[in-house]
Amino acid sequence: MNTIPVKAYGTDAPEHDLKQFQIDRRAVLEQDVEIDILYCGVCHSDLHFARNDWGMTQYPVVPGHEIVGRVTSIGSGVTKHKIGDIVAVGCLVDSCRTCNNCQNDWEQYCHSWVGTYGGFDKHLNTNTHGGYSEKIVVDEHFVLSVPDNLDKAGLAPVLCAGITTWSPLRYWNVNKDSKVAVVGLGGLGHMAIKLAHALGAHVTLFSRSTNKISDAKALGADEVIISTDDAQMEAAMGRFDLILDTVPYEHDFNPYINTLNTNGTLVILGYLGPLDPPLVSVGMIMGRRTVAGSLIGGIAETQELIDFCGKHNITSDIEVIKMQEINEAYERMLKSDVKYRFVIDMKSLKER
What we know:
Elements: E1 3-10, E2 19-26, E3 32-41, H1 44-50, E4 67-74, E5 86-89, E6 92-94, H2 100-103, E7 114-115, E8 120-121, E9 126-127, E10 135-139, E11 144-145, H3 152-155, H4 161-171, E12 179-183, H5 187-198, E13 202-207, H6 213-219, E14 223-226, H7 230-235, E15 240-245, H8 254-257, E16 260-268, H9 282-287, E17 290-293, H10 299-312, E18 318-322, H11 326-334, E19 341-345, H12 347-350
Parallel strand pairs: 12-13, 12-15, 13-14, 15-16, 16-17, 18-19
Antiparallel strand pairs: 1-2, 3-4, 3-10, 3-19, 4-5, 5-11, 6-7, 8-9
Helix pairs in contact: 4-5
């Protein structure tokens, strides 16, 4: 197969910094869209995958699955996009297209889904590489249209942080009568607040400290509950229809379960791994409460989100960096030293 050499940033070992090297993209096939990458968001998953925190990374790896760019070439069978369009690519670049999940627009739950990085590229018989690169070639089914009014850099994190929070908000039918709480004010949490507020819900942030109160309210939260304050947590018992827990590290979920109302649901979005301390079933049984998980969203649902963001002029709060600053950004991200998402201006890679 014909390939195109492309500059990229990635790593060849978990203990190594990211650096520039060359990768190959496939030449455009019949259903393909070639995209010149303008901006790429930086996700916690990028860092975890680069450092093999989940034990599944195959090297070399080029992270990045929050991609906004311009179409530069299309295959002969492409009908949804044209050269010059501003488009987006999220966490998926392929799936089987035939299973029950794919037929229901739940490609993220397809057993054969292909991640934008770290998946298997059936055309090149190698790992897929993500958006820390000059260009990407993607089947048109997985390429999303972008409203003209949205800031391109601010849109990038919507492709992961946004859809990760939007999908449970939609699945649990959040509306103007809903009471929603968010645990954690970071990349996911700030998008959860913005989107739940735009859907008309009453939105509460759970935070461990008072220094998040003004930021949360500026994003659209109606109130903030300090989770380390026993009196405030006691007063919150039985209040919420839905809780989105966005914290990416191990923590105790039990205190939040008791703040759910009857039939309420806590959705785990940020943390992957065993629960310690374990869940205590009493609060769940006594209120028919549910603890659930949710993974990004399908392509149709992601397009719905982008259109919703266009209508309500919603993007992520970001700090734009150069590609060459990515290792420093990773260290800052571990310290939560960003409000609330880094986005790479990819012209910094192309200029070198």
